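Hi, here's the filled form for the chain we discussed.

Project: internal
Contact: R.S.
Residues: 372
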Amino acid sequence: MRAVLNFFKKEAVLCISGILAVISCFIVPPSSAYAEYIDFRVLILLFCLMLVVAGIRQTGAFTVICDALLKKLHSIKTVGLVLVLLSFFMSMLLTNDVSLVTIVPFTLLLFENLQGEKKGRALIILLVLETVSANLGSMLTPMGNPQNLYLYSKFNLSFGEFFKIVFPYSALSLVILIASVFLLLPKMNTKKPDGGAKIDSKFRLIMYIILFAVNMLTILRILDDKILLAIVVVAVLLLDRRLFGQADYSLLLTFVFFFIFVGNMGSIPALSEGLGSVLRGREVWISAALSQVISNVPASILLSRLSDNAAALIVGINLGGLGTLIASMASLITYKFYARAPESSPKKYILTFTVYSVCCFAVLAGLYLLIS
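And the returned structure, exactly as it came back:
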């Protein structure tokens, strides 16, 4: 029983989505129509991106980049600026999850050698800034996070159309984050990294970069997704088959469950029409609010079946990643790393994250009101 409870705590969104899918199957009995619910293109793109980015990370390339950038920096403010900017721009191409999985452990390692009463506060602030930076930076591109990839594919948008929708919010986010680094981080000196990081295999790194380019061609609809899947699977089998164990299958299964649940609910005309009428004209606010409760990935799947206002949903879902810790599942990555660290203070972290995240949401929501 304890194992079941622990699994539910660890994979709450997966379990909830599975329960909802099963319940909906009793309302709308399984049939061949279920296959039409599932967006296989999105699942293929997500799976292939997971494998390729995991491969790049395995080569040690990200750590080498971090080391090289930090060798000449001596203060927490300048180090913080570099790490926050890395989180912001890396997330655009490598997803917010991967950005945080790479940078957060590096940040914790960096702080292990620091001393002083400001250390604990500085670490919390920097981790919060990195997390919010990854969430905000990832909203600029379709491949920046799972919900963007889904909405981009669902509404058949061009890269330019998507970029135009989110650019104002991303630009303002960058200004907010840079200002936050200098205003919130205390004055502290840091130490140089040990310089021991190195690329494990230049050949594999080049191959993974090529595979990432193939992913980009598919996202831009130049290459068919089934061809992408075949290329990536064969390449990973030849390069490092252990990468198959690093894909986030719980996220993929969560998508499948929500596809089934939303598809079944959408097949009930009275329900879909009623919810659609409530949502109409309020997409930004409802999607942002719903994300606080079920996170922005399932919220994007649910609401995209009820509204065809792509721009409003994209803005609302991305801004909805700010707020509570579960609004964006990527935010939990940082929290889990930090909570395991010695002398951590989870309550202080959650409070700091929530306050800062809500403030960022308020500013960006104000921009939406001005634009609209």
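Let me know if anything looks off before we file it.
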